[in-house]
Structures are given as structure tokens and as C-alpha cells.
Amino acid sequence: MSDQKLIRIDExxxxxxxxxxxxxxxxxxxxxxxxxxxxxxxxxxxxxxxxMAAGVRLRFATDSSCLALHLVPQAGARCFDLTVGxxxxxxxxxxxxxxxxxxxxxxxxxxxxxxWLPTNATVELCALALAAMASFxxxxxxxxxxxxxxxxxxxxxxxxxxxxxxxxxxxRARSLNLTCxxxxxxxxxxxxxxxMIRDKPADLISLKLGINVQGSLGLRxxxxxxxxxVQIIREKHRTTPIILVSPIISPPREDTPGGLGLSLNRMRAxxxxxxxxxxxxxxxxxxxxxxxxxxxxxxxxxxxxxxLHPNGPGYEIMGVNAAEQALDLVLTN
Length: 333
Known about the structure:
By secondary structure, this protein is an alpha+beta fold. The chain has helices at residues 43-50, 152-155, 166-173, 191-198, 219-234, 264-280, 300-303, 312-331, and strands at residues 4-8, 14-15, 19-22, 27-30, 57-62, 67-71, 78-84, 87-94, 100-103, 111-116, 125-131, 136-137, 145-150, 177-182, 204-208, 242-245, 286-289. The model has no long low-confidence stretch (mean pLDDT 96).
């Protein structure tokens, strides 16, 4: 692009991030509080996943016919989506060592864009380049705020592109402002994550819990951990709708216990019992969704290649199901 208007990226343009790390001419979005990262061990676990930009995007309005994102080059390729009104306009891959991602032939007139950052990579963002005479502003966002917490199945490293991850697909379908706290291999119902969710503004919260704790929590700890996380969040979100979502299907794990004795079917029963106990104790804004409603047996053959994680098209189907089977429990009431 020649004759550019250069806009330095700052935190006000980011949505879906918890915090930002500032470097020499760049900022890196984090999905946990960067200044408190030492309180989220291990460094090579949840911290490493929280550096990845799953669900994070730049939101801005411009009438530019083209735009370029300048970022610090990295060794691997990274995928980006540009959306308007929830619809994907363009998907662009920045090849290894590329420092620019370009989007051309954009719609006429001012549009509110969301530029979705890579699901399974870190990004150090420098600037946006627009046509020289283009307008630019950071608009307010009136959409409801949705926070969702989960494992690699919510992190969606295998999504076709960032805006096609299941939380992104569901958020686009229902026009929600998404914060995705999907951490690959690291959803262990951590108390610090509960505190982080408690302290964030939210109109809707979903907790998709289970698959990772087969290796960390047993029968004695799983149900109390769910109850405790909900109660922690309730300290500041007294009436915010919370949706508990049990694990999606994984055929080898449905009836076979993991190392600490929990099969997925037992986990679903334990989560449903936790939900019943909390409702009986007075929580009238708590919902339970069986994971098979998001991704069940009918999808295994074509969309669950490793018997655990959906493939790219599978994540999109899961996002549509999540909107209809989970989000609509709240949004249509």
C-alpha cells in the first residue's frame, strides 16, 4: 500500500483480551492479567496458552478501501479473518516471517470491522495502515458481553480460521462481544480463573468443564470445584446468567474412567448434580447443557478425527449448536 495513513494500535482497539503486554513499538494481547501472570502456574501451561490470541480481535470503523496490519514477524504462519456484521469478508494467512497482513477491495462507505487474530499463535501488534484519506475511529460496542471458559475444545486450535472457532461462530451468530478463555489442556477449574471471570464485566458466562480434569481432579474434587467456581463468580455477578456445559462426546472416554476414576458420563452426572444443588440453594440464573447437544454421536464419523477434538467444519457446527442449544436458553428468555 502506498499513500498510507498509519494508526498505532493501542488497547482501546482490542476486544476479547484480558490485558496487554507492551514492547518496543508493539502490544501483545493476553487472555489473563499480564501483571499477575506468575499467579497462573505453570508457565508452560496456562500462561503459554493465554498468550495465544484465541477470540481476540481488533474492532474499528473506517471507510478505507484497503487495510494492512503490521505486526512483529514470527517463524510460523498465522491466520486472520476480517468480518463485518458477523459475516466473514476475507481470510488471510501471513506466511512465516511476514510482518504485514493485507485486506483489499473492502466495501464502500464506513464499516465497523473486526479483525480476528490467530487462534493458536501469539501476536505482537504494531499498526494499522489505511488509505491516506480514509476515516478511522474506535466505536463503542453495545453488544452483550459473553465470557466462555474451557479446554482445547474451546481454544479451537484446529479451527479453519479464527472467526470459525466454535465460540467465535456462536458469538457472530448471536451478535455477542466474546471473550474466549479456552486454554488448550489447561481447563482445570482453577480458582484464579474464577476470580478473573468474577472481576470482568459480563452479561452472560458459560463454563464448559470436564475433559482436562480427567487427569487432575477425581470424583471427590470435581463436583465441589464446579460449585466453588460458580460461587466465586457469583460474588460480583449476582444475577448474571451462567451456563454449565458438560463435555462433548469422546467415544473412548464416554464410559471408560480416566486415571482418577472419572468417565465423561460420570462427569456429566456430577455436573448436573452440582447444578441441581446450586439451584436448590437459590441460584435462579444457572443453566445446565449436556455436551452432546453441542457435539454428539451423529457428528463423530465425519467431524471428530482424533475422537476428542472436532475438525474445522466440526467446530463451526458446534458453534451453531452452541448458539441454539446454550446461548438461546438465556437470550430468548
